[in-house]
Amino acid sequence: MEDGHAPAGAELAVALDEEEEEAAPLVSGGRGAAAAARAATSQTRDLHLLSSAFLFVFLAYHAAQNLQSTVNTDENLGSVSLGLLYTSFTAFSVVGSPVVRRMGSRRALVLGTSGYLLFIAANLVPSWYTMVPASLYLGFTASIIWVGQGTYLTSAALSHARDNNLPEGQTLGNFNGEFWGMFASTQVIGNLISLALLRDGKDGGSVTGKSLLFVVFLGCMIVGIILMCLLSKRDEKGNNAPTHSSFGAMMKYIVAPLKDRRMILIIPLIAYSGLQQAFVWAVFTKNIVTPVLGISGVGGAMAIYGAADVVCSLVAGRLTSGLHSATSIVSVGAILQAVVLFWLLLFYSPMGGLLGAAVPLFIGALWGVGDGVLNTQLSALLGLLFEDVKEAAFAQLKVWQSGAIAVIFFLSPNITLQAMLILMATALIISFGAFLLLTLVVEKPSTVRS
Fold this sequence. Notes:
Blueprint: H1 2-71, H2 77-103, H3 105-122, H4 128-163, H5 168-197, H6 207-229, H7 236-240, H8 247-255, H9 261-293, H10 298-319, H11 323-346, H12 353-385, H13 390-411, H14 417-442
């Protein structure tokens, strides 16, 4: 009996061992799959957090910015403050890149929000002694937050693509589409809040209404800062390695993208993207919207602009796969903005009635489509073309963009609407031509990874 049972026991043990050996790879693979799923979840979670944080911060800032040229009118305090802000932004964007590399993009994002908080607080007691220092400090922190945003979003998108074996170009387009779609919605939400609280006639509402508006905006800023603090530390290790031992080494890194002809050809479009944003904030709201709808109508017109921006950002992001697709998408936005500029230049005059009130809203919608195109495509292309020096590339983005914005804010009180429209049309033609040259001359199979 014992001899008969021994072989059976041995066979059972061997069978169990074989089952364990077969199960082992499944367990290991399951752990790998779980790790990959956690990484993918972390990257998409950070995308949602980053987008939501910017939503709260910039719904307040954009609505406040849109009102500067029409609310803070004492000796053009609003326009001059914004001009100083973007001049400061331009100057400090040069050092934004090394600051982000040393701090890490997450810490840079948190620090960057402090300037926006101070700017909103200054609007509660607007004067030359509060607005000018707040604007200069915001220029510094804005240079940090935007380099940090571009670096962080690109890092998350590329990590997501590599961990999931996805095309990098498409993933960057999707991530930028979601971010810029959420970001564009700040114009809708913030301006609807302005419309609700400043609805007492064409003078922009009472002093109490303005104060309440900026208190609400301060609360939004605090929520945004809290969300920034919840972001993962995803690039600290990479940032600590390449530190700059001297000012010369730092400057060499910052200007490195300027030695690349691809950057030279894309800079005009970057500058135009800044011009067209400032045109909406400083010229469109004051010269097109306010004469027809009043200051209280600025919020509604900018909400329409923001809604079109949101839809276009989401769609353009989904359609982006590389330089070829970006060329087609940018062409659509450029043509729409060209139509608006030449129509305003040649045919537009303010009208009364329902049709007259609808015209600024329609113009805002068309302009929002162009802005959504430029935001998504420029960010995605810089992430693809300059992955190895992405902090410096995004610093260049903000140097040229903010410099162009400053030009508009300083020029707008001193030149006519006709002259401004001619300037914008000329800049659009030059920038779009340079971008087409980029696609014709530079694109090679190795230039942009699909």
